[in-house]
Structure to design on (679 residues):
């Protein structure tokens, strides 16, 4: 952040310390992921295999893409609870479309779903940025609306695997260099978002608005437009993931991805995205996603009953945020001691 | 002798302002719904039926009462649905293990209270953490514990007197309605007539200022979170009595329904604003709306849309009013300047 008003030397000292903590956080998270993996490998020899990692990453890809969008939303001090419903609606409409026009190229279905997602996200964004409704309420309200619309457009029926053309279903199992195409898609999104958040003007503006909307407004940024943009991006990603989801599970239902928004928020929080806005890194979100993905993959492999997964996931999140707070407190205290009197 | 100036916090009474209150708008909507519903079915507008209908929606209303406190403090608790599930599951299991039902109900309330206290403990120990994030993780944990305990089974076979809680009557009034009314009065008094309630408002308006003026912020937050846990336990009892059995996946999504009802009742998520009566009226408005749409055979999905739109409009209306008033004031200033 270049918004500090302290003298250069002090800012520099503070910044190196802050980056140190930032690194520590990510290193800690990475170490924990490695620990989980090693433990699993010790219990089950099949963990460190190519197929399993392919599975793990492909399963985590949708979560990871959504977490990128959610990171931007949280950076602007917002939250979007409507993404699960948005995902279901876009996925459902795309599935109905491919069921109707069977010759449609899957890429078109993806684009179509993305457009619907963008439209849904734009509505949420408008309500948040231009009507001044708090994000949690706006997205909660639209969550109900999109979920209702999903049931209405489908007439409360499922779109099952037999109705979908093979080209569409095969898309999910397509492999490129023996690696599933979903992993490449997610990787591409991570590269684009890394560049977008760190090296483009709009990307930096999102952080500026998030760390201090007032100063951003004084410096001539339109906080409203940036806020709106963030929800549009989130919506677009949800729509895109809706199609990926439907193709992967080969079925579109009214309750698709119900409650999935909480997993996405959890991945962001684990990745160190600050709920008070202004902070959050693509690398952190990647690690947060990988941790959740690794847990989901590892627990069945060590014969842990599927019923334990929720509790373990929740406990990991709680411990992670508490440890993070303790570390931060410690650092703040050291900073205070070092302050020249 | 100069006249003593009296400073009063009360605004002068004005009839217009009185009727422009959010609660009156809600009441109008409520009456409109009753009129429309009575057009739909000739049997609708019947005292017995109206009273009976309340048992279809009042179970989650018990959480709305403490949620008003939480939201007035400017915070949020999304773990309540999972708390309901965990306390219901433990009640069922302890009954199955041979505990008499009355003791099992105590277990249920205690589990709810413990869940709420755990949230409160974490939130007061680690003040930097956002309530949304902490309760998100405990939401996953509580539901997770319920899943570990009961896996995919259900427990039931409760004594018949227990089921009375769901549909039984105390004279002409269902137990559920009577107990809800008692709780509503209790919580209303607590919020509006005690120093505890004033302190809750103070925390919501400005936490730092209230801390510096001697409000025990942490203690009050802890008590409020404990209360919402306890009331989730109460909901668990009524929900289980209504359904006759319980599973780990009951009450899914209750947190969002409860928050929606509270916000519809005019409680501002920005904190410091809102009244108990608004939330109570909103509970009945949403409940009868749901029932009326059911009478018309409107599928539940459309109801979702109606509630979603209502929720956003409810929050937007005051904003639009301030926007228009601001514009008018600006125009007025400009006119005066000329």
């Amino acid at each position: 952040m270049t918004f500090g008003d302290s003298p250069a030397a002090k800012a520099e000292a503070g910044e190196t310390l802050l980056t140190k903590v930032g690194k520590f956080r990510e290193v800690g998270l990475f170490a924990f992921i490695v620990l989980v993996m090693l433990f699993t490998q010790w219990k089950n020899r099949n963990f460190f295999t190519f197929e399993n990692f392919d599975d793990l990453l492909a399963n985590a890809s949708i979560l990871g893409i959504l977490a990128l969008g959610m990171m931007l939303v949280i950076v602007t001090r917002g939250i979007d609870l409507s993404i699960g419903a948005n995902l279901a609606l876009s996925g459902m409409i795309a599935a109905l479309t491919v069921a109707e026009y069977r010759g449609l190229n899957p890429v078109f279905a993806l684009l179509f779903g993305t457009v619907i997602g963008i439209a849904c996200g734009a509505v949420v964004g408008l309500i948040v940025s231009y009507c001044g409704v708090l994000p949690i309420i706006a997205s909660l309200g639209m969550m109900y609306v999109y979920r209702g619309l999903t049931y209405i457009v489908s007439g409360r029926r499922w779109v099952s695997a037999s109705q979908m053309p093979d080209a569409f279903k095969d898309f999910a199992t397509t492999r490129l260099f023996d690696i599933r195409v979903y992993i490449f898609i997610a990787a591409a999104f991570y590269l684009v978002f890394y560049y977008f958040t760190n090296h483009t003007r709009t990307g930096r503006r999102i952080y500026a608005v998030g760390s201090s909307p007032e100063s951003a407004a004084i410096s001539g940024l339109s906080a409203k437009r940036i806020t709106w943009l963030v929800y549009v991006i989130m919506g677009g990603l949800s729509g895109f993931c809706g199609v990926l989801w439907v193709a992967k599970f080969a079925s579109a239902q009214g309750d698709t991805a119900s409650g999935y928004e909480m997993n996405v928020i959890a991945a962001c929080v684990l990745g160190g995205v600050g709920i008070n806005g202004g902070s959050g890194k693509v690398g952190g979100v990647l690690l947060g996603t990988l941790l959740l993905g690794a847990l989901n993959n590892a627990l069945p492999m060590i014969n842990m009953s599927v019923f334990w997964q929720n509790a373990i996931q929740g406990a990991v999140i709680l411990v992670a945020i508490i440890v993070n707070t303790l570390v931060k407190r410690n650092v703040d205290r050291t900073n205070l001691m070092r302050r020249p009197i | 002798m100069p006249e003593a100036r009296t400073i009063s916090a009360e605004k002068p009474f004005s009839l217009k302002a009185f009727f422009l209150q959010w609660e009156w708008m809600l009441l109008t909507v409520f009456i409109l719904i009753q009129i429309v519903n009575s057009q739909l079915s000739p049997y609708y507008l019947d005292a017995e039926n109206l009273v009976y209908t309340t048992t279809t929606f009042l179970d989650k209303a018990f959480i709305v009462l403490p949620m008003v406190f939480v939201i007035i403090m400017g915070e949020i608790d999304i773990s309540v649905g999972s708390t309901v599930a965990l306390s219901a599951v433990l009640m069922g299991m302890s009954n199955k293990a041979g505990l008499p039902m009355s003791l099992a109900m105590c277990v249920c309330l205690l589990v709810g209270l413990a869940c709420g206290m755990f949230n409160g403990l974490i939130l007061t120990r680690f003040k930097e953490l956002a309530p949304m994030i902490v309760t998100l993780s405990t939401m996953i944990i509580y539901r997770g514990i319920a899943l570990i305990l009961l896996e995919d089974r259900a427990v039931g076979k409760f004594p018949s007197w227990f089921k009375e809680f769901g549909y039984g009557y105390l004279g002409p009034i269902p137990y559920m309605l009577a107990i809800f009314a008692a709780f509503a009065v209790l919580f209303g008094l607590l919020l509006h007539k005690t120093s505890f309630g004033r302190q809750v408002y103070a925390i919501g308006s400005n936490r730092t200022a209230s801390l510096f003026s001697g409000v025990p912020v942490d203690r009050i937050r802890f008590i409020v979170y404990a209360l919402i846990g306890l009331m989730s336990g109460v909901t668990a009892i009524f929900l289980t009595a209504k359904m006759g059995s319980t599973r780990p996946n009951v009450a899914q999504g209750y947190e969002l329904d409860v928050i929606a009802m509270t916000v519809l009742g005019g409680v501002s998520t920005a904190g410091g604003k809102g009244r108990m009566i608004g939330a109570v009226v909103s509970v009945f408005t949403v409940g009868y709306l749901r029932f009326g749409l059911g009478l018309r055979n409107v599928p539940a999905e459309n109801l979702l849309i109606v509630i979603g739109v209502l929720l956003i409009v409810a929050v937007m209306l005051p904003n639009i009013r301030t926007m228009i008033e601001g514009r008018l004031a600006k125009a007025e200033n400009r006119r005066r300047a000329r």
Observations:
- Residues 8-43 of chain A form the longest helix (36 residues).
- The first strand of chain A starts at residue 175 and ends at 176.
